[in-house]
């Protein structure tokens, strides 16, 4: 049987790396689009294409990387024409909500118009009936929520340039599906985290700080809105649902979420508990502090610079449709297990980082 071919945009990101591993295990030929950069940004996937065993045995690499960009339609056409994928997973995006307020034009170019460029590339190459497309959508579409929980029929009310750009991407994907008969679907993913999450995202910022504070390499953690509540799942579980959406008989949009909601404060409390520190919260608003019960030290403070211009207070998804039609299990990894996985990984990461620094220092002496 002919091997399925998958093309992943954003393959170097958290979701892209997990999805690449998942598809390789399924026997796919995996291709990824990589943005040209003066610095290395392939840390999450190096084990898939720099494996010594693969090189020594002169076997094919587990993944094939192509230089391209969501802001360059010619590169997208060239890559799709070369690879002729049976499935495309569009995960590439400027995905940081707060940063989107600083770079709104670029966010629109990459996240909104970039999706159009991808869909149009498939269409002009005549692959409408051959290639299935997964578009990574987001719970930020719901923004100022109109109902709780949010489901596929909930009205959108985005509250950031990122959310607005993703709303265009959602509707243009749906429009191409209805206009050209393309199998193109939107996965409305709620917050999904992992040990591979970028360090600027709040969950990873918390687990990394807990590990550093525990090991004596950081004094304090500064956060924004502690009352913000999110539906947090494990990214490794969510990529399975992306794949299931493209195996479904009918092209449909799905909410991908756990159906549980927790606050930033809860996440921080659990993360510190995993490293043996019990926090007590005192004060309110910008005066709130997280205090180590054992020592009385203030370990967490609120800094207004981390507040968004337009806050999204709570997001809670209803995964009933995905559970019923795709038979996907949204709580394979519990919230507590997710925090534990991230903290344990960061404890190892911090330890390894400082051991390497000590070795470098001794060599330079």
UniProtKB/TrEMBL annotation:
InterPro entries: GDP_Man_deHydtase, NAD(P)-bd_dom, NAD(P)-bd_dom_sf
CDD domains: GDP_MD_SDR_e (cd05260)
One BP term from GO: 'de novo' GDP-L-fucose biosynthetic process
Requisite cofactors: NADP(+)
Enzyme class: lyase
Pfam families, sorted: GDP_Man_Dehyd
SUPFAM superfamilies, sorted: NAD(P)-binding Rossmann-fold domains
EC number(s) reported in the record: 4.2.1.47
Chain ranges of the NAD(P)-binding domain: 7-342
Swiss-Prot/TrEMBL catalytic activity: GDP-alpha-D-mannose = GDP-4-dehydro-alpha-D-rhamnose + H2O
Record's keyword terms, sorted: Lyase, NADP
Keyword Transcription regulation attributed: no
Function: Catalyzes the conversion of GDP-D-mannose to GDP-4-dehydro-6-deoxy-D-mannose.
NCBIfam families: gmd
The family this protein is said to belong to: Belongs to the NAD(P)-dependent epimerase/dehydratase family. GDP-mannose 4,6-dehydratase subfamily.
The protein, known as: GDP-mannose 4,6-dehydratase
Name of the encoding gene: gmd
């Amino acid at each position: 049987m002919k091997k399925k071919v998958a093309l992943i945009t954003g393959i170097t990101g958290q979701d892209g790396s997990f999805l690449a591993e998942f598809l390789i295990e399924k026997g796919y030929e995996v291709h990824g689009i990589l943005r040209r950069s003066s610095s290395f940004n392939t840390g999450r996937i190096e084990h898939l294409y720099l494996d010594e065993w693969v090189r020594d045995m002169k076997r094919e690499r587990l993944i094939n990387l192509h230089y391209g960009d969501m802001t360059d339609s010619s590169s997208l056409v060239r890559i799709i024409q070369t690879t002729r994928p049976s499935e495309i997973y569009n995960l590439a995006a400027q995905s940081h909500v707060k940063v989107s307020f600083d770079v709104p034009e670029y966010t629109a170019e990459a996240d909104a118009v970039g999706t159009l460029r991808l869909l149009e590339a498939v269409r002009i190459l005549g692959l409408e009936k051959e290639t299935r497309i997964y578009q990574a959508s987001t719970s930020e579409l719901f923004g100022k929520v109109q109902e709780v929980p949010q489901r596929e029929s909930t009205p959108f009310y985005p509250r950031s340039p990122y959310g607005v750009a993703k709303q265009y991407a959602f509707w243009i994907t749906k429009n191409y599906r209805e206009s050209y008969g393309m199998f193109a679907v939107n996965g409305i993913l709620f917050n999904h985290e992992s040990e591979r999450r970028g360090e600027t995202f709040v969950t990873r910022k918390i687990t990394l700080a807990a590990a550093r504070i525990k090991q004596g390499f950081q004094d304090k953690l500064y956060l924004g809105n502690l009352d913000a509540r999110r539906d947090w799942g494990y990214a490794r579980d969510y990529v399975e649902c992306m794949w299931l959406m493209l195996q479904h008989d009918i092209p449909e949009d799905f909410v991908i979420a756990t159906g549980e909601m927790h606050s930033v404060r809860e996440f921080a409390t659990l993360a510190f508990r995993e490293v043996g520190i019990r926090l007590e919260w005192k004060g309110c608003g910008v005066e709130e502090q997280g205090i180590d019960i054992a020592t009385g030290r203030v370990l967490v403070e609120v800094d207004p610079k981390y507040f968004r211009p337009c806050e999204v207070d709570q997001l809670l998804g209803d995964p009933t449709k995905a559970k019923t039609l795709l038979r996907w299990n949204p709580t394979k990894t519990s919230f507590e297990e997710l925090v534990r996985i991230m903290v344990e990984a960061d404890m190892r990461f911090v330890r390894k980082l400082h051991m390497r620094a000590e070795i470098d220092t001794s060599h330079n002496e």
